[in-house]
From TrEMBL:
<dbReference type="InterPro" id="IPR004516">
    <property type="entry name" value="HisRS/HisZ"/>
</dbReference>
<feature type="binding site">
    <location>
        <position position="137"/>
    </location>
    <ligand>
        <name>L-histidine</name>
    </ligand>
</feature>
<dbReference type="InterPro" id="IPR015807">
    <property type="entry name" value="His-tRNA-ligase"/>
</dbReference>
<dbReference type="InterPro" id="IPR045864">
    <property type="entry name" value="aa-tRNA-synth_II/BPL/LPL"/>
</dbReference>
<dbReference type="InterPro" id="IPR036621">
    <property type="entry name" value="Anticodon-bd_dom_sf"/>
</dbReference>
<dbReference type="InterPro" id="IPR041715">
    <property type="entry name" value="HisRS-like_core"/>
</dbReference>
<dbReference type="GO" id="GO:0005737">
    <property type="term" value="C:cytoplasm"/>
</dbReference>
<feature type="binding site">
    <location>
        <position position="119"/>
    </location>
    <ligand>
        <name>L-histidine</name>
    </ligand>
</feature>
<feature type="binding site">
    <location>
        <begin position="88"/>
        <end position="90"/>
    </location>
    <ligand>
        <name>L-histidine</name>
    </ligand>
</feature>
<dbReference type="InterPro" id="IPR006195">
    <property type="entry name" value="aa-tRNA-synth_II"/>
</dbReference>
<keyword id="KW-0547">Nucleotide-binding</keyword>
<comment type="similarity">
    <text>Belongs to the class-II aminoacyl-tRNA synthetase family.</text>
</comment>
<feature type="binding site">
    <location>
        <position position="269"/>
    </location>
    <ligand>
        <name>L-histidine</name>
    </ligand>
</feature>
<dbReference type="GO" id="GO:0005524">
    <property type="term" value="F:ATP binding"/>
</dbReference>
<dbReference type="GO" id="GO:0006427">
    <property type="term" value="P:histidyl-tRNA aminoacylation"/>
</dbReference>
<comment type="subunit">
    <text>Homodimer.</text>
</comment>
<feature type="binding site">
    <location>
        <position position="133"/>
    </location>
    <ligand>
        <name>L-histidine</name>
    </ligand>
</feature>
C-alpha cells in the first residue's frame, strides 16, 4: 500500500516553525489593536454564489481555482446547494456585515481575520492550495467616513507599521487607482478597443483576457508582451475629477506620515471588486511569487452581494510569504558572509581601499578587503565566496566619487555615490 501524504499544495506546519507563525499572528493582533480593529471569524465554506457575485465570475479565482461541490439535498424536493471553500475572506466579511446589519450602527466597522484560504493554483514556492491570510477590512456607511482617502492612508500606514514591527525589511509599496465604478467601464472599453489589433500578437492568456477581462492583461508577465502592454491606454487618463482628487489625497496623506510608495499604473489586481485605490507590498527575497500582500478599496462590493451601500477598504497578507521572508532574513543574518567585498583596482588603490573599508566598518558593516594585485576575475571569485556584494574601487571611482556595486545573488550592478554607500549596504 502506498503511504499517504498531505495533499498536493497543502502542508503540515511543525514546531519549531509554528512558533514563528504564532509570533507573526501575535504581532498582527497587537498592531491592529492599536488601530482599534476587532477580530471576525467567518466560516471556511460559503454558498458558491457569494464568490461568483462578490469576487467576479471572470476572475481566475472564480473561473478556475475554487474548490466547489454540491451539498446533499436535505429533502428530495430541494435543490442541492453549491458550496465553496473560501478562496479569500473579504466576500465572507462583507456577507457577515450585511447579515448582522452592522451598518445600522452608523459606525465604521474595523475587522480583521486570520485563517486558511483555498485556491486550486499550481503549487510552487510561496504558492499553495491551502494558504493562510491575515487581513483586515474597514467598512461602513458613507456618513461614517468610509469613502475618505484618509481611511486608505491609515490602512497603508498600519501595514507599514506592522511590517516594521515584525522586522521585515525592504518591503516595497506600490499603489494605483483603478477609478470609480463609472471610470472603469470607460477604461475597459478603451483597453478592449486597443487590444483588438494587439491581442493576436500576444500570449494565449492575454488573447483570452482581451475578450473576457481586459484589465487582467496588465498583469501579464510574459516578456515579449511587455512593450505592447506599456503602450496601452493608462487608467490615470480615464479617472474622473473625483477619483483623481481621491487618489491625490491618499498620496498626500502617505507623504505627510512618511510612508514610502511608488505609483504603478499597471496595478489592477486579480479581484473584480476593487474601485479607486489598489495596492500591493512586494519583497524581492520571495522570487517569482513576490507579493507579500495586496488590497484596495471596494466601494460597490456590499451592493453587488445584495447589501446596502457600504464603501470599504481592506487587504490580505500572505502569512506563508511573511514567514518565508522572515526565514530568509534570519538565515542571511546567520550567514558568515560579509556585507561587501571591497576590491581595489590596482595596487595603487590599496591605501584608499583600506580607508573606504575603515569607513564602512565604522558604520557597523561587515567588510572584506581584497588586494590591488588581484586580477578582476580573481577579485570577483574571492568576493563571491566571502561577501554578498562587491565594490569596485579604482582611480575613476576615486575621482568621480561614484562606486560600482554588484550584488552576487541578483547579478544587479549599480553605481552608488560614496556618501550613500553605507546606507545602500544596509547600515
Ligand atoms: P489576493 O487575495 O489574491 O489579493 O492575495 C493577497 C495575498 O495573499 C497575496 O499577496 C499573497 O501574499 C497571498 N496569496 C494569494 N494566493 C496565495 C497562494 N496560493 N499561496 C500563498 N499565498 C497566497
Amino acid at each position: 500500500m502506498s503511504t499517504l501524504k498531505a495533499v498536493r499544495g497543502t502542508r503540515d506546519l511543525l514546531p519549531p516553525e509554528t512558533e514563528l507563525w504564532n509570533k507573526v499572528e501575535a504581532t498582527a493582533r497587537r498592531v491592529f489593536a492599536r488601530y482599534n480593529f476587532g477580530e471576525i471569524r467567518t466560516p471556511l465554506f460559503e454558498d458558491t454564489s457569494l464568490f461568483a457575485r462578490g469576487v467576479g465570475e471572470e476572475t481566475d479565482i472564480v473561473s478556475k481555482e475554487m474548490y466547489t461541490w454540491e451539498d446533499r439535498a436535505r429533502a428530495q424536493s430541494e435543490k442541492p446547494q453549491s458550496l465553496t471553500l473560501r478562496p479569500e475572506n473579504t466576500a465572507g466579511v462583507v456577507r457577515a456585515y450585511i447579515e448582522h446589519k452592522l451598518g445600522e450602527t452608523g459606525m465604521l466597522q474595523k475587522l480583521y481575520y486570520i485563517g486558511p484560504q483555498f485556491r486550486r493554483e499550481r503549487p510552487q514556492k510561496g504558492r499553495y492550495r491551502q494558504f493562510w491570510q491575515i487581513g483586515a477590512e474597514v467598512i461602513g456607511p458613507a456618513s461614517a467616513g468610509s469613502e475618505s482617502p484618509l481611511r486608505d492612508a491609515e490602512v497603508l500606514e498600519m501595514l507599514a507599521a506592522f511590517l516594521h514591527e515584525l522586522g521585515i525589511r525592504d518591503a516595497k509599496l506600490s499603489i494605483n487607482s483603478v477609478g470609480s465604478a463609472s471610470d472603469r467601464p470607460r477604461y475597459v472599453a478603451a483597453l478592449r478597443e486597443a487590444l483588438q489589433d494587439k491581442a493576436p500578437q500576444m500570449c494565449v492568456d492575454c488573447q483570452r483576457r482581451a475578450e473576457t477581462n481586459p484589465l487582467r492583461v496588465l498583469d501579464c508577465k510574459v516578456p515579449e508582451d511587455q512593450p505592447i502592454i506599456d503602450a496601452l491606454p493608462k487608467i490615470a487618463d480615464y479617472l474622473d475629477e473625483e477619483s483623481k482628487a481621491h487618489f491625490a489625497a491618499v498620496c498626500a496623506a502617505l507623504d505627510a506620515c512618511g510612508v514610502a510608495y511608488e505609483v504603478n499604473p499597471r496595478l489592477v489586481r486579480g479581484l473584480d471588486y476593487y474601485t479607486r485605490t489598489t495596492f500591493e507590498f512586494s519583497h524581492g527575497g520571495l522570487g517569482a511569487q513576490n507579493a507579500l500582500l495586496g488590497g484596495g478599496r471596494y466601494d460597490g462590493l456590499s451592493e453587488a452581494i445584495g447589501g446596502p451601500k457600504a464603501p470599504g477598504i481592506g487587504f490580505a497578507m500572505g502569512e506563508d510569504r511573511l514567514i518565508l521572508t522572515l526565514q530568509a532574513q534570519a538565515s542571511e543574518a546567520a550567514s558568515t558572509l560579509a556585507d561587501a567585498y571591497v576590491a581595489p583596482l590596482g595596487e595603487g588603490m590599496n591605501a584608499a581601499a583600506l580607508r573606504l573599508a575603515h569607513e564602512l566598518r565604522g558604520a557597523g558593516l561587515k567588510i572584506e578587503l581584497g588586494d590591488g594585485s588581484f586580477r578582476l576575475k580573481k577579485s570577483f571569485e574571492m568576493g563571491n565566496k566571502l561577501a554578498r556584494k562587491i565594490i569596485l574601487f579604482g582611480e575613476d571611482e576615486l575621482a568621480s566619487g561614484m562606486l560600482t556595486v554588484k550584488d552576487f545573488a541578483s547579478g544587479e550592478q549599480v553605481k552608488v555615490a560614496r556618501g550613500e554607500i553605507a546606507h545602500f549596504l544596509g547600515a
